[in-house]
Amino acid sequence: MLAAFGVADFAPVALGGGQGTSWRAGELVLKPADVDQDELAWHAQTYPRLTLDGFRLPRPQAARDGSLCVEGWCATRYEAGRHELRHWPEIIEVGARFHAALRGIPRPRFLDARSTPWAISDRVAWGEIPVSDYLKAGYLPQLSAAIRPLSAPGQLIHGDLSGNVLFHDQLSPAIIDFTPYWRPAHYASAIVVADALVWEGATNDILSAVSHVDNFGQYLVRALIFRAVTDWLCAQDWPSEAEASSTRWPLAVDLACQLAAQP
Question: Is 262 helix (H, G, I), strand (E, B) or coil?
Fold first, then answer.
């Protein structure tokens, strides 16, 4: 596999973050391909079309024979940077720049075929799958009761920005592991806020980073439904993670519901 991507002379080095499955070899980052060939091809075709205004984006790297996946592995160019704790406003800001660059890119067809826990949870959050099918997930009755219609248009967004922005002292932030969804852009910011409130120790002060967003409570309610259903679907695989997050869920849910009730 290393030879196929042209990095056989480099000893792979494990990279932190994510699911712990990414490796650096030379100027490439290699990881197991967790999407199908259509999505890999879409990434490779779409990235060159984007104007990188205030952010970096590691482009997919084909193997020497042109393949995007070799023995179950795919590759991107390496982008220097580090994860920074509590940089939520900066993550939200660079996400907004990324989403501005994505406007006008058509909705990819592969989104309809995805059946991962995350894809299912996203559809529940936006009423495409009945919430009633998942009321056993934590806080779903309270959160679903707070939902009101939103008229904001959909576009491509990164649905998992929280742990996927790398910061550098001299370079623009790098956005990695682009997980595309077709939703209003502010939903991506709400997922960052939800993650921060539930798992990263944020207080209500984080709301200053989204004070410009109308109806933010409605986005936050949907973001928490997205995470709650995912937690429930994945609990058999990651029970300790779901248990560890439970103590902060009530505060986040109460805050979201209060905001969602505001006119």
Answer: coil
Angle (nearest 5°) at CA 129 between 128 and 130? 115
Nearest to 153 by CA among 186, 122, 124, 128: 186
Predicted confidence (pLDDT) per residue in 122-171, tens digit: 999 999 999 999 998 989 999 999 999 999 999 999 999 999 999 999 99
Helix (H, G, I), strand (E, B) or coil at 173: coil
Judged on CB neighbours under 10 Å (0-12, 13-18, 19+), 85 is: exposed
| CATH of the domain spanning 88-260 | 3.90.1200.10
User: Domain coordinates of the chain in residue numbers?
Assistant: 13-77, 88-260
Distance CA 92, CA 99 (A): 10
Taking the C-alpha atoms of residue 34 and residue 40, their distance in angstroms, rounded to an integer, is 9
- Closest by CA position to 161, among listed 180, 184, 188, 185: 188
**Long-range interactions of 44-47: CB distance < 8 A, separation 24+:** 44/68, 46/105
242 confidence band (pLDDT: 50, 70, 90): very low
What is this structure's pTM?
0.95
What are 76's two structure tokens?
């991107």
